[in-house]
Design a protein that fits this description.
The chain has 119 residues and is α+β, with helices and mostly antiparallel strands. It is 29% helix and 31% strand. Strands 1-2-4-3 form a four-stranded antiparallel sheet, covered by helices on one side. Helix 1 packs antiparallel against helix 3. The protein is globular.
Length: 119
């Protein structure tokens, strides 16, 4: 994976927020997987894709639509800020974040970030 221009602390916060949500969704146990891949454009590395996959309870379509909204939470003790903050940080890094989920099968968060341009 080539270098990605980013703020280490902010990106760490993104992975922490998503990781905590995923672990809470797998309260009965499960598997949390991180996958990375390189996206090339005209044979030149242009973006890095990071997928965070959990085998938790999953989310309905309505929950997915609201997941990145501030103060929306499916947990009684949740603030609803973790995913909203994660999306804001990723977008400030000129990236994107996507969520795919199915009730009973888990969720996949996909983050795409641009790689550093060669000098």
């Amino acid at each position: 994976i080539p270098p990605i221009p980013l703020d280490d602390a902010q990106i760490r916060q993104v992975f922490l927020n998503i990781g905590i949500n995923s672990m809470q969704a797998m309260s009965q146990g499960g598997c949390l997987t991180f996958k990375t891949r390189l996206i090339r454009q005209n044979a030149v590395p242009s973006k890095v894709c990071v997928s965070i996959i959990d085998k938790g309870r999953g989310m309905s379509e309505l929950e997915q639509k609201k997941a990145f909204e501030p103060f929306y939470s499916t947990k009684e003790d949740g603030t609803g800020l973790g995913l909203a903050i994660a999306r804001h940080i990723i977008e400030e890094h000129n990236g994107s974040i996507n969520l795919q989920s199915k009730p009973g099968t888990g969720s996949t968060f996909t983050i795409i970030l641009p790689v550093a341009r060669p000098n």
